[in-house]
Design brief:
Order of helices and strands: EHEHEHEHEHEHEHEEEHEH
Number of helices: 9
Largest sheet: 7 strands, parallel
Distance between the termini: 51 Å
Radius of gyration: 20 Å
Low-confidence stretches: none
Number of strands: 11
Structural class: alpha/beta
Helix content: 25-40%
Mean pLDDT: 94
């Protein structure tokens, strides 16, 4: 099944990664030389801005649309094998993120932090679609996202491989700044409404929370994930 991705950053990342593109659509007035140079190896159609908007039912395309196959998931076993050889690897488990904007924002942070991979459940998580790609500003092309039928079993495998599961959980948890992250870590973040599911949470050795000092009791999941990932990086690589 094919889908459309659009916007300069998203399509440029696809071109740089040399991912599959079935057809490229450019506005007749399009003049971004970076994309024009890389587009020469693909079939290209020139359309009016109005035609592009009609094609994807969205006017945020910036004059460039690509028709691609569905974004593939990275093989889970390959990801688990790769991290075994690394020193203090960092993985992220997303337990049911349903909003594509949150998913895209999380992938953007994962790319910025160069984490080793993301694992999502096969059911109950948003697909890797055009909205996720657009919000990620192309990071979707560079972050390894694997699917798992059972997250609990994956966490057991990671525990056997020396990983410590750290769950983002408000109740009965410690301040996120008090944990030593200089170890193989798999950070577990729950869905926007329900949080981490019970069995997955029980698989977490540590539970951490972000202090909430104002009137609201939680942060957007993509914001919370970004804070935690940046803190892990800062804890591992302090500025001297």
């Amino acid at each position: 099944m094919s889908q459309y991705i659009y916007g300069k950053n998203v399509v440029l990342s696809r071109l740089h990664s040399e991912g599959d593109i079935e057809e490229l659509y450019l506005a007749t007035s399009f003049n971004d030389e970076r994309i024009l140079q890389l587009s020469k190896k693909y079939p290209v159609k020139s359309l009016s801005v109005a035609a592009l908007t009609k094609l994807i039912r969205n006017d945020k395309h910036q004059g460039v649309v690509a028709k691609i196959k569905t974004y593939p998931f990275y093989p889970l076993e390959d990801l688990l094998q790769e991290v075994k050889a690394k020193t203090n690897p960092l993985l992220l488990v997303l337990d049911g993120i349903e909003d594509p904007h949150n998913m895209g924002a999380i992938l953007r942070t994962c790319d910025a932090m160069n984490i080793d991979g993301v694992i999502v459940p096969k059911h109950g998580n948003v697909a890797l679609n055009a909205t996720v790609a657009r919000v990620s500003t192309g990071a979707i092309e560079h972050v390894k996202v694997a699917q798992a039928t059972n997250l609990t079993n994956v966490l057991k495998k990671l525990k056997s491989a020396g990983f410590w599961a750290v769950g983002a959980e408000a109740d009965q948890s410690q301040d996120y700044r008090t944990l030593d992250y200089k170890m193989p870590v798999v950070l577990v973040v729950g869905s926007e409404g329900k949080g981490i599911s019970r069995l997955v949470l029980e698989s977490c050795v540590f539970k951490v929370h972000l202090p909430m000092l104002g009137h609201v009791n939680s942060l957007n999941v993509s914001v919370a994930t970004a804070i935690l990932l940046y803190h892990i990086h800062a804890a591992r690589f302090p500025v001297l």
